[in-house]
Amino acid sequence: MKKGRIKVMLGNEACAEAAILAGCRFYGGYPITPATEILETLSRRLPLVDGLCMQFEDEIAALVAVVGASWGGTKAMTATSGPGFCLMQEGIGLAVAVEAPCVIVNVQRGGPCSGQSTSTAQGDLYQARYGSNGDYSLICLAPSDAQEMFDHTIKAFNLAERFRIPVIILSDEVVGHIREKVFIPETKDIKLVERKAPTCDPKDFIIFKPEENEIPLMPNFNTGYRTPVISQAKSLNGNRGNAKEADDNIRRIVRKIEDHMDEFADVQVYGDPKAETAFVTFGSVCRAARSAVDMGKEKGIALRSVEVKTVWPFPDKWVRNALAGAKRIVVAEMNLGMIQREVERVVRQPEIKIELFSKIGGIYPQPQEFLRFLEEKR
Fold this sequence. Notes:
The chain has 378 residues and is an alpha/beta fold. The strands form 3 sheets. The protein has a 7-stranded mixed sheet with strand order 3-2-4-5-7-6-12, sandwiched between helices. The protein folds into 2 domains: 5-189, Rossmann fold (3-Layer(aba) Sandwich), CATH 3.40.50.970; 270-376, Rossmann fold. 48% of the residues are buried. The termini are far apart. The chain has helices spanning 11-21, 36-45, 59-71, 82-87, 89-97, 125-130, 146-163, 173-177, 243-258, 285-298, 316-322, 338-347, 367-376; strands spanning 5-10, 24-29, 52-55, 75-80, 102-108, 139-141, 166-172, 179-184, 267-271, 277-281, 303-308, 310-312, 328-333, 353-358. The protein contains 13 helices and 14 strands.
């Protein structure tokens, strides 16, 4: 890729190119529509930068290999869609438990189960946050176009290294398969976060002892640090811990993310920020909402669209601020009301009407439908 130029590419291709620029050198995956172009692109591109792209027997093996590659000292990622994301849930829990930085892309399609393999949907929202067992926290980003797919991928790698966590990019078929202009910045303009390795004598190293920022240092395999890396509740030295040690560790792996949301929470407002009618959207539906806001303006109707770019941890404060002054809130999403429940929890004002504009079945909503909804549900 020639840097510093505008390229026309698929959202999935933008993700792959951004991963390489972010320093990704291992991809473990399994082909599945509508995410396959990420695997295909990286299978061609990674060998050119001394990287490795491997297709595994299934998505379980793919993510576990990504966790191993991460502990081996490599920035690593995988990508899948809903059915494969189901299979990855135990691996996500493993990545959380051993604090392995990695990136997981879910290009959503209709469900449940095999669902609609070539159609769009947003039904994996709760799975991205609560799919694995136990208490934990992670970061989930939701791009709305190919440029954001590029930008969010670099951000995801930086957040993964910063917080030592799996970061999920919750894309969908529209974002993955839309072909549009993407600006590729110069390499020198891309700021990357690199993980911090211990420098102490290996015999003095305590594997899960956190630094001041709640995050432990991370040695690579085969560098002299003889430390256990297990999936069970553990003590600071990595061995199985007692109840108190498990309690402390679980609270820390949640706190290290949720106490630092100012660093990554992203909610944007499009249109009139003081409009009394507001849409709340995430992912590709943001695009239709923006067009509806523009069409409303032409008709003299003041509208705003609140776009949630960081969906987990849900940015309560930022959504509440973006909705200040709104008297009618329409949550638009391609599921049966997952973000709506979060907005209701955040707003908590009975006098404010919070309605759901839901479109499922694999058909993308049109801007005219938004305006028609406002008229019919008045």
